[in-house]
Amino acid sequence: MSFLFDPKEAHGQGDVFLRLFIERFAPEWTGAFRYDQAKPAWTAERIDASLRAYFAAGRPNGAPRLASFEGWSDTVRSALIWLGKADPVASMELARAEDPERGDPADQERTITRAIAAGVSYFDTAVQYGNGESEKNLGRVLQKLKPANVAVGTKVRLPPSEFGRIADAVRMSLEGSLARLRLDRVDIFHLHNAITETGGGLALSVRQVLGDVVPAFERLRQQGKTRFLGITAVGDTAALHQVIDARAFDSAQVVYNMLNPSAAEELPTNYPAQDYGRLFDHTKAAGVGVVGIRVLAGGALSGSAERHPIASPAPEPIGSAMSYDADVDRARRLIALVKEGLPNCCTMF
User: Fold this and answer.
1) Domain-embedded: residue 320
2) Do residues 76 and 1 make contact, with C-beta atoms less than 8 angstroms apart?
3) What contacts 84, CB < 8 A, 6 or more positions away?
4) Same structural domain for residues 27 and 104?
5) pTM to 2 decimals?
6) For residue 241, what pLDDT is reported?
7) In this structure, how many other beta carbons lie within 10 angstroms of the beta carbon of residue 245?
8) What does the angle CA 223 – CA 229 – CA 233 come to, to the nearest 5 degrees?
9) Average pLDDT, stretch 26-39?
10) Residues 51 and 143 in one domain
């Protein structure tokens, strides 16, 4: 699902775009769309479609500029939930978890064994990865292998319905994760929600993070259920800086790859990516450890749009261009480096 807006038209890629607008705004809007068989894509010839979707996502008092590309995805997802539709992300993860072709227990054990032998010492998972199946599989294998010096991290993503009871929701999420992982504690517990200045949709505000999430996390640390506290550093850049600067967290998962190195250096004017404003300067000053994420830009750095038959669908643009195809096109300019090996493309950044 992706959006591209220009002064005259709104272009939406995928079925979610059609569902959001036609189901909510038909019959008056049915004739406002045309379908491009080549893409495929739906094009809304009235630009105010984007504003109406934004209002449906829970911002009736205005539509301020979104500061991150992740925000567009969250806006559409929130609108679908608001309309009483199934959460498209949860539905996708459930389908992936039930896919028998995604590897049997023996495959999973061989993979983790090989990773540990190669020097991998940190395993990152989350409730959302396979609707809990990732945690179950990792827990089962680690219990059998009992490797030394391996760290495990998981995450909590709070739905808007739980924003009024954050402490209880955080506790219940971690306790569920520990049961699936067969552990008494994790090494790092990350917040998975995006963080913005004022919150809204699926994002938490800076106030909610520092005033509600941090105390809940600290209580879990005092109870011995996690060693370190972390965030997933996506959302508004200014909000992320505020949270990091507060020195309330030990770890941050930070977007950093060859298509978007803005966490470490300044970007040129009009560069097609979210500018994270040298976020590493802030993590270093605050003594916050960094876990690199999206190091292959969701697979775009391969320079190919082809995906393995059992791979997840092509993702939304994540911290880079306005579409996944645009990311792939930009990555092809770096094909000489890619041919030297994708691991090099990760480790050099």
Assistant:
1) no
2) yes
3) none
4) no
5) 0.72
6) 98
7) 13
8) 155
9) 43
10) no
